[in-house]
Amino acid sequence: MTGLRQFRSFERPVQLLLVNQLSINVGFYMLIPYLAAYLAGDLGLAVWVVGLVLGVRNFSQQGMFLIGGTLADRLGYKPLIVAGVRAADRRVRSPRSGGLRACADHRLRGDRLRGRTVQPCRPGISGP
């Protein structure tokens, strides 16, 4: 009960952020078993490769919190946020991005994406 009481002690925007983060985490970790089944079943990867892929993915996300937090403590959070936004912008604008800019334009116009056009768009649509 202490956790619920503490949750209610926060202001509404903080409560909304906490619920939002909880739903993101629950949704993502509900996806992991399906991703593992897809990698092992449909793609035919060995179980150890699936474990390695998912382990590296989780370590890169969780491990970067330590590095990013340390840098934010030393340099400040605003310069790091600006650097991240600039890096993401360069990724979208780069010629190697596979046409992410065109994908964004298609999505804004409401065009249907099919066939090979969808593949280079997926990183831009689903996030970095």
Give a short synopsis of this structure.
The chain has 128 residues and is mainly α. 81% of the residues lie in helices and 0% in strands.
Strand-pairing-aware structural class:
mainly alpha
Roughly what percent helix?
Answer: over 70%
Mean pLDDT: 76
Q: How many helices in DSSP terms? A: 6
Number of strands: 0
User: Can you tell me the number of structural domains?
Assistant: 2
Strand content: under 5%
Low-confidence stretches: 106-128
The first-to-last residue Cα distance is: 37 Å
H/E series: HHHHHH
Describe this entry's structure for a reader.
The model is unreliable at about 105-128 (pLDDT under 50). The chain has about 130 residues and is mainly alpha-helical. The protein contains six helices and no strands. The two termini are about 35 Å apart. α3 packs across α4. It folds into two domains: about 1-70, no CATH class; about 75-128, no CATH class. The longest helix has about 30 residues, at about 10-40.
Question: Key features?
Answer:
2 domains, mainly alpha, 128 residues
Annotate the secondary structure layout.
Layout: H1 2-9, H2 12-42, H3 47-75, H4 77-93, H5 100-109, H6 118-126
Helix pairs in contact: 2-3, 3-4, 5-6
